[in-house]
Amino acid sequence: MQNWIALAIAGLFLAACATVTDVETDDRRVSDRERMADEDWSEQRLEEARARGLDPSDPFISALMDDPEGPLSRQTVYFDFDRSEIRNEDMPVIEAHARFLSGHPDRRMTIEGHTDERGSREYNLALGERRAEAVKRIMVLNGVDEDQLEVTSYGEENPVALGSNEEAWQQNRRAELIYRQ
After folding, report:
1. Which residues, listed in sequence order, are joined to residue 111 by a DSSP beta bridge?
2. d(CA 44, CA 37)
3. pTM value?
4. Would you call 147 exposed, middle or buried from its count of C-beta atoms within 10 A (0-12, 13-18, 19+)?
5. How many angstroms separate the CA atoms of 88 and 162, rounded?
6. What is the pLDDT of residues 74-88, one digit of tens each?
7. How do 76-78 and 174-180 pair as beta strands?
8. Which helix (H) or strand (E) holds 49?
9. How far apart are the first and last CA of the chain?
10. What is the pLDDT of residues 116-135, one digit of tens each?
């Protein structure tokens, strides 16, 4: 009987040790996963910054890009169908980029105008240019030197969303704000 009690106590002890080890292992796994997710996130943010023409090693740029809720993290302005007027909700984004550019005269930006697939090629090129010019006008009114800005239109040539439906068209009616040195 004493052997059974000793064996049961030993079994409980081993089970308790195994549970602690599993918890520690699980914690370590979670910690490793979080660390890998943070590294992936950081690398993704760096790639996004590079794609936008920003130097991620610049501490000021890095700080701006690290705030995903900040207005500078958004570099796309959307438009209504067949329109080139800036929406009220997009004004803070454009004004934030204008403040940034006017405070950094060594920085340059290309404003790319885009349209959805509807309309002729010539019409879409002209509409994309009107959209980019509308963004440029707001930036200049907010203190950006015109020499810092370049406008180009791709019309319907570079869609971000493929498809012939309203969801895709909404994403393609845009102006993109691309920083360059």
Report:
1. 151, 177
2. 10
3. 0.69
4. exposed
5. 27
6. 899 999 999 999 999
7. antiparallel
8. helix 2-51
9. 83
10. 999 999 999 999 999 999 99
